[in-house]
Amino acid sequence: MRHGKKFNHLGRKTAHRKAMLSNMACSLVEHKRINTTVAKAKALRKFIEPLITKSKADTTHNRRTVFRYLRDKTAVTELFKEISVKVADRPGGYVRIIKLGNRQGDNAPMAMIELVDYNELYNPKGNQAKKSTRRSRRGGAKKAEAVAPVETKTSQEEE
Q: Are 114 and 96 in contact (CB under 8 A)?
């Protein structure tokens, strides 16, 4: 029976699973976006989101805790220097999983996992500057009609 076994074991032994998730997390921190299977992406999300939350407070203890999981000095440095600054005001949900379809060879469902704040296309902060207020077409047309006849009447009266 699998009582209380909540995470996906991904068909691997513990050491292999931890090493794989650590390597995938380092690649995600380095490249900001990676392609993998849907099951691995979901497991990686559960693995890396608590680490990103820890990186928001730059203390020696948090750095050592994150290093215990990632085992890569450059990834830890980039996580604490760059990524934690970008996600400082975000209360969670640091990664996004986008399903891509099935892989050619074995028909495995593929997904792209990316850091939310590093995608300019989906970034809501970038869209706010472009957004303008909605205006009624009818209201603008009435104002234009009201202005136009007055101008023509004044030009006819002068002749």
A: yes
